[in-house]
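Deviation from plan, reported transparently: zinc ion complex.
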Amino acid sequence: MSKRRFLAAWLALIVLTSGAAAQDADIVLVNGKIVTVDDRFSIAQAMAIRGQRIVAVGTDGNVEKMKGPNTRIMDLAGRTVIPGLIDNHAHWIRAAEHDELRFDGVTSRAQALKLLADRVQTTPAGHWIVVLGGWSEEQFIDDARGFPRDELDRIAPNHPVVLQAIYDHSYLNSAAQTALKIDSATPDPPGGKIEKDAAGQPTGVVRGAGGVAFVAARIPLFDADAWLANTRKLVTYLNSLGVTAWLDAGGRGMGAKHYEPYRLLAERGELNVRVFWTSIRQPATPAQADVVIKEIAEQKPFQGNDYFDQVGWGESVYGPVTTQLLRTTSNTRPEDMAQYRRIAEALAAQGLYVNSHVEMEAAIDAFLDQHEAVNRVRPIKGLRWTFSHVDQVTDAQLERMKKLGMGAQVHSRPLIQGALMHKVHGEKAWDMPPFRRIQDSGIHWGLGSDATAVTTSNPFYTLSLAVTGEMVGGRKVNRQTISREEALIAHTRSNAWFLFQEGNIGSLTIGRYADLLVLDRDYLTVAEREIKEIRPLITMVGGKVVYEAPPR
Ligand SMILES: [Zn+2]
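Because the crystal trials were delayed, the predicted structure below was used instead.
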């Protein structure tokens, strides 16, 4: 920051803090490098919190005036603080279905096997051990291979094990094959393939998106109590990675039982993260669309609170319309897009926010045609409609989106799938997604993960990809990189808008919730390659410490 800009920011902070010093603060953070991510990207030394919200930001001298006899002082010892990270597209509500083992950011196959062996030690025999996506063989630097059944059997002879890679294929041990009743007579599921050897016996590998769904749907679910415990555990894990809020895009088989634990925790004031979600329905025929259109007319979002609330609809609108990252063609037949438009018109009539999953250039045009047609009948500007993923979006498409008041949610899928994307899309993959082009277009946009099946849940990996263009294992796959400041804004302040929470979260400014991270190193100055290694020492949500790193 230039000297003049710094001075301007500093003067503004004095003005803002001077009015609020009448009452004592509950917590005062001093002696730090507080990256506020306000409109000027100001850096402050100190911050005061009263209740759940920030009441002062400025210099040590200024903020210390708010100390009272009961104020807790947190000496940051020069450490960097950033706003809590907000993910604009994750499937974490569903993730509480299972107590998953995760290979998030694990760059060695040997380490993955060790994690599995450790989990076997702490899990009663017969209980399932599952990894449901978020990793790929290409992330292992030592040995970029999957997991043969005999190797899994040696490590876990008495536990059913399923290791699912990037929503594409699953490795099963013998116990899992037996439990899932997969044998030589089992037919391939729709859209999937049960791999068999020369003798016709299943090998332990089930392939294809249909195969992933076939396996995942047969893993038993927990009862309500265990589910609640899982949800708490998952939220703590996310807090440890720096996540303080997200927009949940729903997913396969989602129902009331998935939302219940979060609703319950929010009601008790025990939900240590902010979860905003969109209703997902996947009508597959015009008659099913009729039913959904009736349901839309009854929708009343925004009936919750600042911890748990429905904000709208998505990411799937009409089932037969599909686009996929690892395919060059999309299913956007005119008769299906006509059904998409009917549903979109009903959503616009109800004044609902919509997030639509769409990746490829031709598909984005097909979706935009419908949105423009809807807008002529029922204006959508102001509803913040968004496209998710937009891996191939062009300048012309970004302009059309801007005219409709739309936003772009952009995700870190190349972290895991980058090598595969290059195989499928060739040279084009270097610009997928086009972070730089989207940033320069001036459209409202933000960063997210699409976790858990598709990517790692760690937001510092997403920031790392946007800044370095590198996969989890370090391979460069994207040339549309942006600055670390741009990436941080896209993962905080910009994302608050998609959650309809821009007045509450996204920057460390007076009046907003104290959702913040004290980092173990400085995001703004560490080597680019180290961004993905950054971990929070403390995570705070609404002025409450929800995570503290164990001492090293
Ligand atoms: Zn999606």
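The radius of gyration is 24 Å. We consider this an acceptable substitute for the interim report.
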